[in-house]
Amino acid sequence: MSFVDDLLVILSDYHGGYRLMRRRIRGYTGPARGASRHGATVVSDGYLDVALARLKRRGFVARETRGIWRITQAGKEHLERKLRYRRTIDQQKIGIKPVKNLIIAFDIPERHRKKRDWLRIELRNLGFELLQKSVWFGPPPLPMDFIKSLANLQLLPYMKFFEAKESHIVGVR
Length: 173
What we know:
Elements: H1 3-13, H2 17-25, H3 45-57, E1 61-63, E2 69-71, H4 73-93, E3 102-106, H5 113-125, E4 129-132, E5 135-138, H6 144-152, E6 159-163
Antiparallel strand pairs: 1-2, 3-5, 3-6, 4-5
Helix pairs in contact: 1-4
């Protein structure tokens, strides 16, 4: 996970807020001064402040009184999506095959080539397999932010979604 994701985990799991977060990021793990920092990531205050400002701008964290930060509902949802994606990748690494029963077919005009290329990359990242150039097979559900991106890019009118069992599709591993 990234540093920003780690910040969200700290804010969602620990109730000590900003001060505790700073101490944990610097590697402080116990009550004694000069505690061991081996294996801990040491981050400058400026880097942490910039990361928190960006998270706040995106609506993932909020600052309360006297330096106490908390994760917002949007931050919790973002973190859950990231963790769900990470679990999927980890399952693939150890050989657990996700259930696939979603077919996505699209016919995006040539004038939207960049959007079409973006879509193919995103589908691959979501664990989809290529059946044909514009027909993909993969695991549901689609993340909400992905669906919002499709709507923002005005790609939904060019797309169809179908449910099928993997055993019904010839040639899929």
